[in-house]
């Protein structure tokens, strides 16, 4: 048992930043067409700056011990990008009958996996015939 | 698929007779849609489809909306799958009975932690190891929320409204349960925990209204039941890492010798809440509201209770001079039962401490009574005064928020149990020209005795090396902890906030922008060097060039910087 020799201390700096762009349009014409698109892009990242928790005097007398934390800050890296696009279209044949479609696309890229790589793409498509009664 | 088709058919059949009920006299608008949906997932669905069901099948939605002489009816059904659907039913019968019911159900993917991050620095299993008993399980739950409120108001007694609410939330599925055995190595085990949780709320209320205000009383009973509250686990045998002998049984409450124990436990809860509200529209020119809330929450496993009592009073008045005053005061108290923790103090079974408990060797008994850190009496005051100079010159507003939390047991700085917050702020809002809006605000907060953990880090212990852990002079972990000197925190002792907003509109086009800056820090305790800066900015542009189409574009930015100290004990053991 090597005993304790006090503590080592450093100030940690943790930063995060995110940027999001959103855009969309909606079009309605002649009581026939109703269509639109919503789009968003978000990129977010977070990181811990390098820190030092060295104990040179203790390491000199306890050569089996290591206080090298030069890579430890990288374990907190987060970096992800998400694209979300949602498009829909509705066509009315007359006042009582219409047809609609929807397409939803999501792409999530996990560029600095934390527990595991959660990157993935999800696509949804739906169509329906509707009537007024 | 069979369930889906049955539900589809049931929705259509339910909607058709409702159109007959609607009759021909009033205004009815109903529609139905039938279709198909399908999905495609590439890679992990855990984030991309966190709240979406995958697969394929039929979809149906039905809406019936009618207003008749007898009242009105609204029915909505939206079915995609047994995991993702919603419904609503509203009706109003001659204003005598008014009812709203809604239902929502969706999936929430929780992900599956493979625990491989535990191998970041150590791969040989001596320091840390992990075992996944259900490595292929997809952890997710379906959440459903049923809410219904019905009000009764008799024509002969219009002043009185009686109401009954019912809400049921269900979480069904599987979650990942983790347990840690810590002796030989740090051994993290993962297993499936089936979840079948149900929370029911029933509320009865009565309201008497008159021209100048109202009084309302309500009682809510909540019952939370976990169908499978815990999972069985057998902790590892407490062995010496090198000798692989059971030398440390007197240092651990549980190991394989005590057999199976229940872990990942969530208790069943009962909660009763009473509430009384009073509103007076004009008393000496002031609009007044007052309310009181009393609740008792019981952990039905242990019988431990938590009591809350809170009272709020608000007053507002607009003077002819253009001055407007608003004040909100709140007092509340929280009283939790004390908890006696009876530590499982086992004797050693081998080695130099065989037959002796930890207390026998070191003279320390860890049995204790836990006094709640949440027990408190608190007072909050929010004062707001504004004066309008004119449309172009704008409105100037000043605020003073005062908050005092007096804890019964818990010290947040040495000898200090009371935290006092004062926030002073000023806002100017104006419309300097046609179509332009501008708002600027600044707030400063000063917090005396902000929340810290006293002696939470930085152990100053200096000891000699000893040949083995059984030597009575070898320092113990509680001695390491007793020598800590740093107050740790994530709460500011002062902060400043700047808020700028701008908007311009021409009728068919609008531009708005917002920027918020927040900066706080805390260096009140020993070695407490915490600080944080947050910034957010948004810009939104919207336009409708014609009645047939419109578009928008927006940008949002967020940036945060935080500084906090880390302390590491320098030791080998």
CA-based shape of chain A = rod-shaped
How many helical stretches of chain B?
4
Fraction of helical residues of chain B: under 10%
What's the N-to-C terminus distance of chain A?
A: 83 Å
Spans of chain A with pLDDT under 50 lasting ≥5 residues? none
The strand line-up of the biggest sheet of chain A is: 1-2-3-4-5
The coarse overall form of chain B would be globular
In total, the number of strands of chain A is: 5
Query: Which structural class do the helices and strands of chain A define?
Result: mainly beta
Structural class of chain B: mainly beta
Mean pLDDT of chain A: 93
Distance between the ends of chain B: 60 Å
Mean pLDDT over all positions of chain B: 93
| Main beta sheet strand tally, sense and closure of chain B | 22 strands, mixed
Radius of gyration of chain B: 31 Å
As a percent range, the share of strand residues of chain A is: over 45%
Helix % of chain A is under 10%
Unreliable stretches covering 5 or more consecutive residues of chain B: 1-5
Please describe the structure with a list of short key phrases separated by commas or semicolons.
heterodimer; A: 133 residues; mainly beta; five-stranded antiparallel sheet; 5% helix; rod-shaped; B: 573 residues; 22-stranded mixed sheet; 4 helices; globular; disordered N terminus
